[in-house]
Design goal:
By secondary structure, this protein is of the alpha/beta class. It contains 17 helices and 16 strands. The chain has a seven-stranded mixed beta sheet with strand order 2-1-3-4-5-6-7, sandwiched between helices. A seven-stranded mixed beta sheet has the order 8-9-12-13-14-15-16, with helices on one face. α12 links the parallel β13 and β14. α10 packs parallel to α11. The longest helix has 16 residues. The N and C termini lie far apart (about 65 Å).
């Protein structure tokens, strides 16, 4: 059997059960490989306090979350070295792709993992990573981060399993589909691996790899036991700023409807687990881990097959499980019928992207088609049905100005969400908005330490980083003010 050490270089200082870690561990263990997780999250000399940051600016309701966790005073790199010495892994792996791709700081995991390992002597260990950046521009990543042996482009579970099997059988791994690497100063790019059509082959995901305190999470002023959860993968839309388009492009879903932004043949791209598998996972996590909140990371929950959701709704509604779901979707999917379905699924909260209020800017620059009326109606309908609503907003887009932010504040006043979040725009490599951000010279071609929650990397002359930081700090207060 092969030994795989997974590194979680998360710098947010709070528990996140990253889906790719759980999916890889499950699959590898099914084939008798050994898996261990080294989690950097709670090391004081590594992480930032994202909870405090977003509680101070009122995007999160204050809670006693810090009473549930304990930060480690030991040095993160020293403990990582001890773990490597004791476990003796054949592979060290960090960063991947799942439906958990839009936030939580995972976009920059390749850099953070490389930073952790860069000073170590690991000549006998395969250092392998993947994720959005690897998929979007393998040449850039291999040139920037020299201490990587192999990149996996696209989905990584089946590729990493194949590599582990080959190492176990003393076979060469260099012909494995999906790999990019440098050999004898030459760039080698293997053919693409197949997209994973049946997500049930990865499930049930392995949450046993996470330490106990990882399961605690602040939620609307309380602390609950929660996991990140995945029912489906793939978004049917092609918003020009979104990392989803990087994966779509890799698997050759390049065409989209110019009026809706939906990709063609999206049924082949958007995939789901079976309702039976999803319910069994939820039930087991509730019973065995005491999980009450399932933070669904599906890119657009209401584009999951309606028959599957109806079947899952019946299973959940007819059970005695004390659970609730938090989902993300788009406003145009909210109507009387879908709200009834959400109630049956025990959905407690819905997050929806407002992004910014200028509809013309959204459609022309972001390829995102969601008109104001539908957004207003969606927030109104959810409120009437006592489902909590979170509005996701973004500032710092290329060519955005301060007036656009003020308009977005006023629009949030109108829809009056229960919770409000504001992210800094990050130019994701491989997206159309990245190309625009580089062409306007508002961002660097590579942004180290990027994090759309904690910091902006803008060089815009239209709106300064100081101004963006002001709005990040005061956005909620400005929305809630009466003026």
């Amino acid at each position: 059997m092969a030994k795989i050490l997974i590194i979680n270089p998360n710098k947010w200082g709070r528990g996140i059960t990253f889906l790719w870690m759980a999916s890889h561990s499950s699959l590898l263990k099914k084939y008798n490989h050994q898996v261990k997780l080294f989690d950097c999250t709670f090391y004081e000399n590594w992480s930032e306090n994202e909870i405090k940051f977003n509680s101070d600016n009122k995007m999160y309701k204050k809670s006693d979350y810090e009473n549930y966790i304990k930060y480690k005073q030991d040095d993160v790199k020293s403990d990582l070295q001890k773990t490597i010495n004791n476990f003796l892994p054949d592979i060290i792996f960090w960063s991947s792709i799942s439906s958990h791709i839009h936030s939580e700081g995972e976009y920059v995991n390749i850099q953070y993992g490389h930073d952790l390992l860069n000073d170590f002597n690991l000549s006998n260990i395969k250092k392998i990573t993947g994720g959005i950046q690897a998929t979007a521009d393998h040449e850039k990543i291999l040139s920037l981060f020299k201490n990587i042996d192999y990149l996996i482009r696209g989905e990584t579970e089946m590729v990493l399993l194949e590599i582990a099997n080959k190492l176990d059988g003393n076979e060469s791994i260099e012909d494995t589909d999906g790999l990019a690497f440098i050999k004898n100063n030459q760039m080698i790019v293997n053919q693409k691996q197949k997209i994973i059509n049946d997500l049930d082959i990865l499930a049930p995901y392995d949450y046993s790899i996470f330490e106990e305190q990882t399961f605690y999470r602040p939620y609307n002023g309380n602390v609950v036991r929660a996991v990140d959860f995945e029912i489906s993968r793939g978004c049917i839309y092609s918003c020009s700023y979104c990392v989803e388009t990087v994966i779509q492009k890799y698997y050759s879903f390049n065409e989209n409807n110019p009026k809706t932004g939906a990709i063609k043949n999206f049924k082949k791209y958007h995939r789901s687990k079976s309702a039976e598998m999803v319910f069994q996972e939820i039930k087991d996590l509730n019973i065995n881990y005491g999980i009450s909140l399932f933070r669904c990371q599906d890119t657009n929950f209401l584009t999951i097959n309606k028959g599957l959701l109806e079947e899952l709704g019946e299973l959940i509604n007819n059970s005695d499980l004390d659970i609730k779901l938090y989902i993300e979707t788009r406003p145009e999917g909210i109507n009387e019928k879908t709200v009834k379905l959400l109630k049956k699924l025990k959905v407690d909260g819905v997050g929806m992207g407002v992004e910014l209020s200028d509809q013309n800017f959204r459609e022309k620059n972001l390829n995102r088609f969601a008109n104001q009326k539908k957004t207003i109606n969606a927030f109104k309908l959810l409120k009437e049905n006592k489902i909590k609503r979170t509005a996701y907003n973004v500032i710092g887009f290329p060519e955005q100005d301060e007036d656009s932010i003020i308009q977005t504040i006023n629009f949030n006043k109108l829809i009056n969400p229960d919770n409000i979040t504001l992210a800094f725009y990050t130019p994701y490599i491989g997206t159309k908005q990245y190309d625009r951000a580089i062409s306007t010279k508002e961002y660097e071609s590579y942004n180290f330490n990027a994090d759309n929650i904690l910091r902006t990397k803008t060089k815009s002359k239209n709106i300064s980083s100081e101004t963006l930081n002001y709005y990040k700090k005061n956005f909620v207060d400005l929305v809630r003010s009466e003026n």
